[in-house]
Amino acid sequence: QKEVEQNSGPLSVPEGAIASLNCTYSDRGSQSFFWYRQYSGKSPELIMFIYSNGDKEDGRFTAQLNKASQYVSLLIRDSQPSDSATYLCAVTPPGTYKYIFGTGTRLKVLA
Amino acid sequence: DVKVTQSSRYLVKRTGEKVFLECVQDMDHENMFWYRQDPGLGLRLIYFSYDVKMKEKGDIPEGYSVSREKKERFSLILESASTNQTSMYLCASSSSTGQAFFGQGTRLTVV
Question: Contacts of residue A45 in chain B, CB cutoff 8 Å?
Answer without folding.
Answer: 102
